[in-house]
Amino acid sequence: MDMENADQKFMRMALDLAARGRGRVSPNPMVGAVVVKDGRVLGKGFHQAAGGPHAEVYALEEAKGETAGATLYVNLEPCCHFGRTPPCTKRIIAAGISRVVVAVQDPNPKVGGAGLRELEDNGITVTTGVLAEEARRLNEVFFKYITTGRPFVSLKAAISLDGKIATRTGDARWISSAESRRRGHELRRAADAVVVGVQTVIKDDPLLNVRLSAPQMGDGARQPLRLVLDTRARIPLTAKVIRENPEQTVVVTGSDPPAHKVAELKAAGVRVWTLPLRKGRVSLPALLAKAGAEKLTALLVEGGGTVNAAFLEENLVDKVYLFLAPKIIGGATAPTWVEGKGVDRVAMAGLWRNAGLTKIGDDLLLEYYPEKEEADVYRDCTGTGPGTTGDGTERRALLPDRCGGNGERFSPGRECGGERGLLDGNQNRG
Ligand SMILES: NC(=O)c1ccc[n+]([C@@H]2O[C@H](COP(=O)([O-])OP(=O)(O)OC[C@H]3O[C@@H](n4cnc5c(N)ncnc54)[C@H](OP(=O)(O)O)[C@@H]3O)[C@@H](O)[C@H]2O)c1
């Protein structure tokens, strides 16, 4: 096998190992590592829990005594700073590793590339970019969080062929198949928090927890928080999300919720976040800022259609998962997965790039990302092409002018109207 093929084979192994950390390592990235010498795998490891040893440590430990002259494969640049654990670069150098193959640099601008430079300065050959796209996709949540301080927002809906999420009478159980619902629970397991509107709680009284068998859950997986958007604290105290594991529930209100209801909610054991208003409801940019500050790296928005539309209108959705069920519900008043005002003309509709199509029995799971290039062209105020405006200003700074809350266009840019902020380097991979 030539070196390029070998690099891909062992990097794939590292990526598969890394993925075993899904739902367990937040706010850290998923990382896998493999130590190889003469085509033989001597050690493997993956990051298993935030605050625990990094993948490289497990792999080097397993290969102990044989690491001199070996190659280390790791899907993310090894850390070179003290976080909650000592720097991996030092251990790699001490182990006598002669070559390190990395899929992607650490995206944290405060550390990006420094780990690789330290390895090279110590005579280690460094190769980067092997299976980079897969590696970026695997850690898309971490990449967004570490560079913006905001969570990665996924939106999930189970819809009929005609785009309905319930019948005109409000019946919503079940749109998709049992197997699709199990996949939906896997998405919840990977999220730090599930987000719904208060109407969904009032109408459906859902539990919003992960219901998978113990082996499907895996070791170390935890239940996501449940965030209920509820400007005036209308949620019934009898709701299941309040009666069952209230410590997992946050009622997110606007700036002036009724004091007696807040007191009742707190007495029931749920948390209450009081956030500013925007267009008369809970401000979603403020919600993302608060969630980021609480180290929630991945949000899963589960509707209903009013909340979905609000996230889309503000360009806050990073990925969409649609479970499409072979049913036609019909009815002009039956809710669709995107309600709200909508755009006036088709030319104003946001564009989305398909990133996955999976058949689940007779259901389909469709995955989409915002189409950035098209949006960049649309959004370029000066016509100077993607990237910057004529005066060199980063274009994202212009987004509020283009779409700042007037609902003009469902556009796929991120963080519209929100602030951007960088995390401290020490928050990376600690
Ligand atoms: N098939 C599926 O996948 C699925 C999933 C979920 C729900 N559903 C269905 O969806 C239906 C409920 O949808 P819905 O559209 O009526 O209600 P919804 O989206 O669940 O909740 C909307 C409510 O959330 C509150 N809210 C607070 N902040 C908000 C913000 N920034 N933007 C938007 N809303 C905000 C608002 O009430 P306040 O103004 O009082 O705060 C608003 O009326 C139910 O029939 C349910 O069965 C289906």
How would you write the strand order of the largest sheet?
10-9-8-7-13-6-14-16-15
Can you count the beta strands? 16
Give a list of the ligands: NADP nicotinamide-adenine-dinucleotide phosphate
Write down the overall geometry.
elongated
Range of strand content: 15-25%
Count up the helices: 15
Q: Give the low-pLDDT segments.
A: 374-428
Largest sheet: 9 strands, mixed
Which structural class is indicated by helix and strand composition? alpha/beta
Q: Which bin fits the share of residues in helices?
A: 25-40%
Gyration radius, to the nearest Å? 23 Å
> Which whole number gives the mean pLDDT?
87
N- and C-termini, Cα separation: 36 Å
Helix-strand layout with pairing:
Elements: H1 3-19, E1 32-37, E2 40-46, H2 55-62, E3 71-76, H3 88-94, E4 99-104, H4 114-121, E5 125-128, H5 132-138, H6 140-148, E6 152-160, H7 178-190, E7 193-197, H8 198-204, H9 214-217, E8 225-229, H10 240-243, E9 249-253, H11 259-267, E10 271-274, E11 277-278, E12 281-282, H12 284-293, E13 298-301, H13 305-313, E14 319-325, E15 352-360, E16 363-370, H14 372-379, H15 399-403
Parallel strand pairs: 3-4, 4-5, 6-13, 6-14, 7-8, 7-13, 8-9, 9-10
Antiparallel strand pairs: 1-2, 1-3, 11-12, 14-16, 15-16
The structure holds NADP nicotinamide-adenine-dinucleotide phosphate.
Structure overview:
- The protein is an alpha/beta fold and about 425 residues long.
- The protein contains 15 helices and 16 strands.
- The protein has helices spanning about 5-20, 55-60, 90-95, 115-120, 130-140, 140-150, 180-190, 200-205, 215, 240-245, 260-265, 285-295, 305-315, 370-380, 400-405; strands at about 30-35, 40-45, 70-75, 100-105, 125-130, 150-160, 195, 225-230, 250-255, 270-275, 275-280, 280, 300, 320-325, 350-360, 365-370.
- The strands form 3 sheets. A 9-stranded mixed beta sheet has the order 10-9-8-7-13-6-14-16-15. Strands 2-1-3-4-5 form a 5-stranded mixed beta sheet, sandwiched between helices.
- The radius of gyration is 23 Å and the shape is elongated.
- It starts with a helix and ends in a 27-residue tail after the last helix.
- The model is unreliable at about 375-430 (pLDDT under 50).
- Bound molecules: NADP nicotinamide-adenine-dinucleotide phosphate.
- NADP nicotinamide-adenine-dinucleotide phosphate binds near residues 196, 199, 284, 304 and 310.
